[in-house]
Amino acid sequence: MRGMSEDIILSTSGLTKEFAGFTAVNGVDLKVRRGSIHALIGPNGAGKTTCFNLLTKFLAPTKGSIVYNGKDITRQKPAEIARLGLVRSFQISAVFPQLSVMKNVRIALQRKRGDSFDFWRSEDVLKSLDAEALRLVEAVGLSTFAELPAGELSYGRKRALEIATTLALDPEMLLLDEPMAGMGREDVERIEALIRKVSANRTILMVEHNLSVVASLSDRITVLARGQVLAEGDYATVSKDPRVVEAYIGSGVGHAH
After folding, report:
1. 115, 140, 168: which is the final residue of a domain?
2. pLDDT over 90 for what percent of the chain?
3. Is the pLDDT of residue 125 over 80?
C-alpha cells in the first residue's frame, strides 16, 4: 500500500445525520485510499447502515460533506454518483428472476450504454453485448449457470450475479452493503474470493458483520460506535484496541479467530 498514503478517493468531513432528536451519525470524518479495501464495522446500532446510506446518497446528511475524486457530491443523487463511477452494489439488484443469468448481465450492460429500458433494439445490437456479458459471468464464476433463470440460483450465487451486474457499470469504486449477510460458509468463501478478485483495479468500501471476512479482506477498518468513529487502522490494530473490544462486548458479536 506504499505510495498511496495521500491518494484519497472518498472522504467525509463532519458527516452527521439526525432523525427527530436522535443523532445516528455524529461528525464522522472518513478517508478511503484509492485502491484499498476499506471496511466499516461496529456493533449493532453503531450507525454503519446510516453512514453507508449517506455515502451512497440514499439519505441526505443533516450536516457535513462528502467528496469523491475531488468533487463535492454531498447534494448529488444516487444516479449521478453512479455516473461518476461510485456504485453501490445491490442498489441495482433488479435481478430479474425469470430471465437467465446472462440476460440479467446484458440488461445491466445496456444500462451502462444508456439504453436502459429500450428492449426494442435489434438482435444484432444485443448479440454484440453477449461477449462482454459472458466475460462478466465468467469473472464471477457463474459460467455453468449462464442460461439458468436467475431465480433458481442459490442465495450466494445470486449475490455473485448482483456483483456481475454492478461490474457491468464499470465502477471505479464499489460500495458493498453486508455482502456476506445470510450466507453459509461455502458461499462466504466464494464471495470473499470474488471481492478480492474484483478489487484488483478498484476501491472497495464495505459494511460487514462477519469479522473473519473483515480480517482477511480489509486493508483498513473504521470502527463506528454510537454514530462516531471509535478507532481506525488495520485489523491487528483495531481488534486489540480496548475501546473496540469493550464496544463489541455484549453486542452479540464475537471476535474473529
Report:
1. 168
2. 64
3. no
Same-domain pairing of 193 and 71: yes
CA atoms within 13 A on the CB side of 198: 30
Is residue 198 domain-shared with residue 150, that is, in the same domain? no
CA distance 28 to 45: 15
How does residue 128 score in pLDDT terms, banded at 50, 70 and 90? confident
C-alpha cell recorded at residue 84:
461518476
- The structure's pTM equals 0.87
* Per-residue pLDDT at 250: 52
Q: Do 106 and 43 sit in the same domain of this protein?
A: no
Buried b (16+ CB within 10 A) or exposed e, 219-234: bbbbbbbebbbbbbee
Pairing of strands 22-33, 71-72: unpaired
The boundaries of the domain holding residue 162 are 93-168
- pLDDT single digits (tens) 190-218: 899 999 999 998 999 999 988 899 999 99
Task: Give the number of domains in the chain.
Answer: 2
**Pair (73, 179) in one structural domain:** yes
